[in-house]
């Protein structure tokens, strides 16, 4: 992503202007360089017209805020230190907070809801989080406070995403991954995204890059929300998105190959050879892997590449903790 180089004395004013124009990249830290400051900006053609020096500099990402810390502070004094220890990280999706309530905190639900509303006064719903279920990976939620709905609009990476947590998968914690992929993509690419859900990856990539995306999703509710999301963001997107309702295992063999394939694979599904067979230059393949099996996972991908007569380079990146010793990972596969 680019940065703008400005004199230190002008930096605050320029930063304010960039924010007003929606061009400042708040996910990155600015950097001092002598009498100058490098300000992080998003990749947008309007940057060139501002009259500042634009440099291709990778400024570091700000660490993800550990949002539960604030909740812990607010609840200190209302919950015992032992009870505070049971608080888990939670997510805010649009105006809905979703939180896991361990058994040890069941009797303090009212205080937890009070704390969440204190930290996030805009909340309209608080829901208790269960587990992902079935092929569509929909979580089981129960509403513990507020309006009786799980539908909302979530904002991330400069796009609006309509979600219905009761009907379609959505994980706000992948926003950093979506941004990482959007940065790797080049204008002009043709991209395939199977298992596309309500289209978070497609929207973020198309927000920043002038690309052609084909996305595939089997869950009819997710598909319909995805179509609404294309409409909702139409003025923001630089790229185009074609969305197909269907089973990736039936649809992909009928499609051509693409410069890049992004596979947010549902847990327990093996779509490696399917997705690799559609990728010409890059495959980003998400999976859940035990730490002791990371190397054999990499070897398996190299083996699949050899079967297809391709020479690949594979880097496996840990994306998040899933359960003790098991990680959600992304294999970035460069296809030779
Ligand atoms: C892990 S979720 C990822 C969704 C989305 N990419 C996201 O990150 O929010 C996997 C998605 O694959 C969809 N899915 C499951 N099996 C499928 C299949 N055979 N063909 C197409 N989509 C499928 C599920 O409905 C779900 O939306």
UniProtKB/TrEMBL annotation:
<keyword id="KW-0949">S-adenosyl-L-methionine</keyword>
<dbReference type="GO" id="GO:0002939">
    <property type="term" value="P:tRNA N1-guanine methylation"/>
</dbReference>
<dbReference type="Pfam" id="PF25133">
    <property type="entry name" value="TYW2_N_2"/>
</dbReference>
<dbReference type="Pfam" id="PF02475">
    <property type="entry name" value="TRM5-TYW2_MTfase"/>
</dbReference>
<dbReference type="GO" id="GO:0008175">
    <property type="term" value="F:tRNA methyltransferase activity"/>
</dbReference>
<protein>
    <submittedName>
        <fullName>tRNA (Guanine-N1)-methyltransferase</fullName>
    </submittedName>
</protein>
<dbReference type="GO" id="GO:0005737">
    <property type="term" value="C:cytoplasm"/>
</dbReference>
<dbReference type="InterPro" id="IPR056743">
    <property type="entry name" value="TRM5-TYW2-like_MTfase"/>
</dbReference>
<dbReference type="Pfam" id="PF18093">
    <property type="entry name" value="Trm5_N"/>
</dbReference>
<keyword id="KW-0819">tRNA processing</keyword>
<feature type="domain" description="SAM-dependent methyltransferase TRM5/TYW2-type">
    <location>
        <begin position="90"/>
        <end position="336"/>
    </location>
</feature>
<dbReference type="InterPro" id="IPR056744">
    <property type="entry name" value="TRM5/TYW2-like_N"/>
</dbReference>
<keyword id="KW-0489">Methyltransferase</keyword>
<dbReference type="InterPro" id="IPR030382">
    <property type="entry name" value="MeTrfase_TRM5/TYW2"/>
</dbReference>
<keyword id="KW-0963">Cytoplasm</keyword>
<keyword id="KW-0808">Transferase</keyword>
<dbReference type="InterPro" id="IPR029063">
    <property type="entry name" value="SAM-dependent_MTases_sf"/>
</dbReference>
<dbReference type="InterPro" id="IPR040601">
    <property type="entry name" value="Trm5a/b_N"/>
</dbReference>
């Amino acid at each position: 992503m680019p940065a703008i180089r400005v004199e230190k004395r002008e930096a605050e004013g320029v930063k304010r202007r960039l924010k007003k124009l929606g061009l400042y990249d708040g996910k990155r830290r600015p950097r001092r360089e002598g009498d100058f400051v490098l300000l992080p900006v998003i990749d947008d053609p309007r940057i060139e017209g501002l009259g500042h020096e634009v440099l291709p500099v990778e400024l570091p990402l700000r660490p993800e805020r550990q949002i539960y810390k604030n909740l812990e502070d607010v609840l200190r004094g209302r919950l015992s230190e032992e009870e505070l220890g049971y608080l888990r990280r939670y997510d805010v999706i649009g105006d809905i907070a979703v939180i896991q309530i361990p058994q040890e905190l069941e009797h303090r639900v009212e205080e937890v809801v009070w704390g969440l509303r204190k930290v996030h006064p805009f909340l309209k719903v608080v829901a208790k989080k269960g587990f992902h279920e079935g092929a569509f990976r929909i979580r089981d939620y129960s509403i513990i406070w507020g309006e009786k709905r799980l539908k909302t609009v979530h904002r991330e990476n400069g796009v609006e995403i309509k979600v219905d947590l009761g009907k379609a998968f959505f994980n706000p914690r992948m926003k950093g991954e979506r941004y990482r992929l959007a940065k790797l993509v080049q204008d002009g690419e043709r991209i395939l995204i199977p298992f596309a859900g309500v289209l978070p990856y497609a929207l973020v990539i198309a927000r920043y890059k002038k690309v052609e995306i084909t996305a595939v999703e089997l869950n009819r509710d997710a598909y319909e929300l995805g179509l609404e999301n294309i409409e909702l963001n139409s003025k923001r997107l630089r790229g185009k998105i074609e969305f197909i309702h269907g089973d990736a295992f039936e649809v992909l063999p009928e499609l051509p190959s693409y410069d890049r394939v992004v596979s947010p694979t549902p847990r327990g599904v093996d779509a490696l050879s399917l997705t690799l067979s559609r990728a010409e230059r890059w495959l980003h393949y998400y999976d859940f892997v035990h730490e002791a099996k990371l190397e054999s996972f990499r070897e398996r991908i190299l083996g699949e590449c050899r079967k297809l007569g391709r020479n690949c380079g594979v880097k496996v990146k840990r994306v998040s903790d899933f359960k003790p010793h098991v990680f959600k990972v992304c294999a970035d596969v460069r296809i030779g």
